[in-house]
Amino acid sequence: MFALVLVSSPRWGRPFLLAASGFSGSASGAPLAPVPTGKDITGGAVTTGVYLPPGVTALLTATLVPTAAAGTVVTGTLNVDSNTSASNQFPDGSPDPGALETIAALPYTYTVG
Q1: pTM for the full predicted model
Q2: Is-contact 51 95, C-beta < 8 A?
Q3: Average pLDDT along the chain
Q4: In the chain, count of helices (H) and strands (E)?
Q5: pLDDT single digits (tens) 14-49
Q6: What is the spatial distance between Cα 74 and Cα 107, in angstroms, rounded to a whole number?
Q7: Are 16 and 63 in contact (CB under 8 A)?
Q8: Cross-strand pairs, 111
Q9: Residue-wise DSSP of 47-85
Q10: If DSSP codes are grouped into helix, strand and coil, which group holds residue 4?
C-alpha cells in the first residue's frame, strides 16, 4: 500500500512533486512511476521510476509541458504505476507491461496559456 500527496502544483515548464510513502507494514518495496495519458507530462520519475522501500517517503518529479495551442483545454490522467515484483519481468530484464499495477489515477484539466 502507498500514500500519494501532490506537494507542489504543476506550472508550465517547471517540475512538480508528488510525495509517495510506502507503508511500513508492507513486506517489500516497489518501483513507482507516474505514467501520463498524454505527452504533456515528462521527465523525472516519468522517465526513470523511483524504488520505494517499505516505510520510506520519496518525491516523484515530473514536468508539465503543454503541447496544444494556446487557449486549448487539456484533460488527462496521471497514473502512478508499479511493477510490484522482479518476477514480473521478461527474461531480458525488461518489465512486463501487463504486470503493472496502477496505484493511483490523478485526473487533471488545464487551459494552455
Answers
A1: 0.69
A2: no
A3: 74
A4: 0, 8
A5: 667 777 776 655 556 677 888 888 888 888 778 778
A6: 11
A7: yes
A8: 73
A9: TS-EEE-TT-EEEEEEEE---SPTT-EEEEEEEEEEE--
A10: strand
